[in-house]
Amino acid sequence: MRSQSILALGLATIAAAAPKPQTPDKPIDFVISLFETNLTCDTSTTPAKSVTGTGCQNRTLSKGGSALVRISVSSPGGFVTGYSEEGCKGEVLVVFTQTDGCTSFDDVSVKSWIGGAPFDESGK
Ligand SMILES: *[C@@H]1O[C@H](CO)[C@@H](O)[C@H](O)[C@H]1NC(C)=O
Ligand SMILES: *[C@@H]1O[C@H](CO)[C@@H](O)[C@H](O)[C@H]1NC(C)=O
């Protein structure tokens, strides 16, 4: 019995040290981090806000911010597309092609996000 409780304690410690899972009971297409006032995805000056879920997500990232893709489930290539209007309409402003690549938005605001690449491969 004694060795069992030591094992349980060990497992609890490992679980506490691991990064917090992203809402594991909810399906997700992607997780992106938005840095609202930093162009270089720098977490020391700007705490990141996560956007996560399935389908189109309305979340504005204004000019002067940056974003990177943490997780992409819908495409193994890591695609997440950002649009100029809510509801994933308007212009395609960004197509992320990898995870963890920081993209700066110094002259456009992105209003919505969706997992997957746009239908046209050129991204327009
Ligand atoms: C972003 O963070 C970096 C590192 O702290 C800093 O050098 C840079 O000036 C910041 N940029 C903005 C626009 O705040
Ligand atoms: C996003 O915004 C559009 C337009 O305002 C709206 O039609 C759509 O339902 C919104 N989507 C979500 C998930 O809130």
Automatic annotation (TrEMBL):
Biological source species: Karstenula rhodostoma CBS 690.94
Keywords carried by this UniProt record: Signal
Keyword Signal: yes
Source species, domain of life: Eukaryota
Record protein name field: Hypersensitive response-inducing protein
Endpoints of the signal sequence: 1-17
